[in-house]
Design brief:
With about 550 residues, the chain is an alpha/beta fold. The protein has helices at about 25-35, 60-70, 75-80, 125-130, 185-190, 215, 255-265, 310-330, 340-375, 400, 470-480, 490-495, 525-535; strands at about 1-5, 15-20, 40-45, 60, 90, 100-105, 120, 140, 145-150, 155-165, 170-180, 195-210, 225, 230-235, 240-245, 275-285, 290, 295, 305, 465, 485-490, 505, 515. Helix 1 (about 25-35) packs parallel to helix 4 (about 125-130), helix 1 (about 25-35) packs parallel to helix 8 and helix 8 packs antiparallel against helix 9. It is globular, with a radius of gyration of 24 Å. Residues about 1-15 and about 420-430 have low confidence and may be disordered.
């Protein structure tokens, strides 16, 4: 083996790569863009020769669009996506039958007051090129990680890589490795990290095809049509379809155009042109841990979700949004390496709750199908509509997306900002309801600062101090050696945030509130002490 040159040339200790990202899906690409914003040098390696040509993930939810808004990508993603009227699921016996049920994708079918953005229905192969273009950091396709060497107490990780085009095996040394290499993660396997959860739920096939289905769908659009013969989804606004179904026996020699035509229903009589076929396993698990020394897991490598509800990719995007500012702080010297311990403490419980929700979604949707099948077997007495086994609020999920609460040493509970710095108590499960709050650990609420500027737009590659009295805090902020900006919070929002006229919120770069002073600080060094506690470091 030979040493792999660093992206900037050379391979000695002075050119030690800060972060090696393994896996070039949406989560890895987003991490690459986030770290570049922080000035952190990265190399991303992807074993496949190109970005995925398959639609795969279909939904970018409202929280993910907030992350992309912060990267300046939200408008471009929305422009290439489906219109909001596609933000629903329609249930039919066959694609050319009438709806017997409909469920809205809350936060996608229409704007919600809880966010400045709206989620979108789009395809992963339409999303990934946008994410690839969001950063200039090097990316190597056709390069697979095959081994990792991380000695006890080592200051770096040595990764062995194979270039599939040449067969050459090289090595790269990195301060940290971020594994975003999917549900069948090589990194997770090499580390011997186990998983917990239902596991494989079944073998499925995606067939991408062209067909003229406008006569049944143009006037009743949807992001997903759930039928007794599989799921149908429009792929792009300009055309194309995908069919998702359990993998049939004899798949290797299957007549896919005939199978898709049969699934469309006996009365369809529509020519089908199959473009691509992909076989995959629907997994449901959470990794037993998200960190092994200098190696961290995110996205499907950390948790695999059933596709129902579109929670998998989006959960991974929030993983790296949580992690990347912490990596940057450690690498740039204003945070202690111990800050990285809060990644697992904060994201592992979220992954577990999200998995429970995704599995429940899958079970309930299958129950709809089963109930409808029973009604059809009963003959002509079957009603036109089915009473759903859930309320519309079950699929709202805003509490799961916007109500995530973190408890770790990177969050100070109310009252601790001026004294005790122990973490707060474990939060209760917010379920599907979102309740606006500015308590520490919660996402900063969306409130309009001006007609077009949200409190979320005040956040970035820095800590943000939002206060109705900036003059009182500017001296402390100027003396703080951490990346920090002071933002004026209009007085009408102070009560909503639980602040007095001189209070303040300290918001982390990932948009979660680190600390709250309900009124003026107890001392002139209060802000400095809180930032030192949150980051575990006193730089400068």
């Amino acid at each position: 083996m030979t040493d792999m040159p660093m992206p900037d040339g050379g391979s000695d200790d002075d050119d030690l790569l800060p972060v090696l990202i393994v896996g070039g899906g949406p989560v890895g690409l987003t991490a690459r863009a986030l770290l570049e914003r922080w000035g952190v040098r990265t190399l991303l390696v992807e074993k496949h020769a190109e970005l995925s040509p398959f639609p795969r993930s279909r939904l970018v939810n409202v929280r993910s669009m907030e992350i992309f808004r912060g990267l300046g990508l939200a408008d471009g993603i929305a422009d290439a996506a489906f219109a909001p009227r596609y933000g629903c699921i329609r249930f039919r016996d066959t694609l050319h039958d009438r709806d017997f049920a409909r469920a809205a994708m809350i936060g996608v079918d229409a704007p919600v007051p809880e966010s400045p953005v709206i989620g979108v229905v789009t395809s992963q192969d339409r999303l990934e090129p946008t994410l690839l273009g969001a950063a200039r950091a090097p990316m190597r396709f056709g390069t697979e990680l095959v081994a990792l060497d991380q000695g006890r107490g080592a200051e770096s990780v040595v990764a062995s890589l194979v270039d599939h085009r040449t067969g050459a095996e090289t090595r790269v040394r990195a301060r940290y490795v971020l594994a975003t290499d999917g549900a069948n993660s090589t990194v997770r396997r090499l580390l011997g990290i186990g998983t917990a959860g239902p596991g494989a739920l079944g073998d499925f096939t995606t067939v991408v095809f062209d067909a003229d289905l406008d006569r049944w769908c143009a006037e009743r659009p949807a992001g997903l049509y759930f039928t007794t013969h599989g799921l149908f989804a429009p792929v792009y606004p300009e055309g194309g379809w995908a069919w998702f179904a359990p993998t049939p026996e004899g798949a290797a020699s299957a007549d896919w155009p005939a199978l898709v035509s049969r699934a469309l229903g006996s009365g369809a009589d529509v020519p089908v042109d199959v473009v691509r076929v992909q076989h995959w396993v629907m997994n449901a698990f959470v990794a037993e841990r998200l960190r092994h020394g200098r190696i961290l897991l995110a996205g499907d490598a950390a948790h695999a979700m059933p596709i129902t509800g579109g929670l998998g990719m989006n959960t991974g995007l929030s993983d790296v949004h949580n992690l990347c500012w912490k990596l940057a702080g450690v690498l740039n010297g204003w945070a202690d390496p111990g800050l990285l311990e809060t990644y697992e403490a904060e994201r592992h419980p979220v992954a577990q709750r999200t998995l429970q929700q995704a599995v429940a979604n899958a079970q309930l949707m299958m129950r709809v199908q089963s109930r409808r099948r029973e009604q059809l077997q009963a003959g002509g007495a079957a009603p036109d509509r089915v009473e759903l086994p859930w309320t519309e609020r079950f699929f709202a999920q805003l509490g799961l997306l916007l109500g995530v609460t973190y408890r770790s040493t990177a969050v100070l509970a109310d009252g601790d900002a001026d004294g005790d710095t122990s973490p707060g108590t474990e939060p209760s499960d917010s379920g599907t309801d979102y309740v606006l709050t500015a308590e520490p650990g919660h996402r900063m609420p969306h409130l309009w600062l001006t007609d077009h500027r949200s409190t979320l737009d005040a956040l970035g590659e820095w800590f943000s101090l939002l206060t109705p009295d900036p003059a009182r805090w500017e001296g402390q902020a100027a003396a703080a050696p951490w990346p920090l900006r002071v933002e004026t919070l209009p007085g009408e929002h102070a009560d909503v945030c639980g602040l007095g006229p001189h209070g303040a919120l300290l918001v982390r770069p990932d948009g979660h509130i680190a600390a709250r002073w309900r009124d003026h600080p107890a001392s002139d060094s209060a802000l400095h002490h809180v930032l030192a506690s949150v980051t575990g470091s006193t730089p400068g």
